[in-house]
Amino acid sequence: MRKTLTALLIAAVLPTMALAMPNEESQQGPKHSQHHRHHGAKAFHDLDLSKDQRREIGKVMGEQMKQRHDIHQRYLDKLPAAEKQAMQKDLKANQDKSQKDIRAVLTPEQIKRFEERQKKMTERRAERAEFKAWKDAKDQKAQ
Asked: Are 14 and 6 within 8 A, CB to CB?
């Protein structure tokens, strides 16, 4: 079970890391950087996609991400509570280390903006969790 979970986590993280890594094309100028930020994967860079094609591919990729999340959740739900807690603790420690390493690279002004963004993301997550709880409660009443 642990091997399966580890493989799933690695499979989920690798595409994200690949998208975050700089490449030669993104260093060629602002037009290329915007292109990669907008489309995500460089696999579509040379296809000269129309706006509609980019939108449709974005939908497909978004659905794939949602399905991947659902698959992960299905396997995580099978884990014992102690292993879930250990995993959450490891993920939190990893996130804290990454944020510390990021702050070490930033200027004081950038750190201030970074922390503001982190605060906003935390607020949005709390709002989303509150909405999800409300929606789940509403769905339970409807049944």
From this structure: no
